[in-house]
Structures are given as C-alpha cells and as structure tokens.
Amino acid sequence: MRTTYDSATVRLYHLDGASEGGAATTLVYGPLAEALRIAAEQPAEVQDGLFIATDNDVVAYLDLIGED
C-alpha cells in the first residue's frame, strides 16, 4: 500500500465470498487510522475478509498488519 500516512482517506470494506458472486460491504470511508481501529474491533472471521483501499492501492487488512 503506497499511501501510508494516518490521515490518508481510505475505504475499509468486507468482501463476503459466501454470497453468490461475492458482496462488498463498506464499513467506513475515512482516515486510515480510523479504518484500522474499526478493523481491529471486528471478529476474526470478519477480519479475514477485510480490505483497505486507497486512491492507488488495495491491501488485505491481515496482510497490512502482518497476520496472514
């Protein structure tokens, strides 16, 4: 993820592979620091499907925090 400062605007979303075709549910549009806080509050099974998108990259939440 190339944009890494705390106030970078990001989209935190959950990608649900269980539904047909997958469904993306946005949890927050906001600063990276807020997105990381919200992601950390989610249950482990939800964290597995979380992604953070910036204006130039997308990364899985667990990859970002080093737990893959």
Q: What would you say this structure looks like, in words?
A:
By secondary structure, this protein is of the alpha+beta class. It has a four-stranded antiparallel beta sheet.
Characteristic terms for this protein:
4 strands, alpha+beta, four-stranded antiparallel sheet, 3 helices, 68 residues, 25% helix, globular
Basic shape: globular
* SSE run: EEHHEEH
Q: State mean pLDDT (0 to 100 scale).
A: 88
As a percent range, the share of helical residues equals: 25-40%
Strand order of the largest sheet: 2-1-3-4
Oligomer class: single chain
Short description:
The protein is an alpha+beta fold and 68 residues long.
Secondary-structure blueprint:
Blueprint: E1 9-16, E2 23-31, H1 32-40, H2 44-47, E3 50-53, E4 58-60, H3 61-64
Antiparallel strand pairs: 1-2, 1-3, 3-4
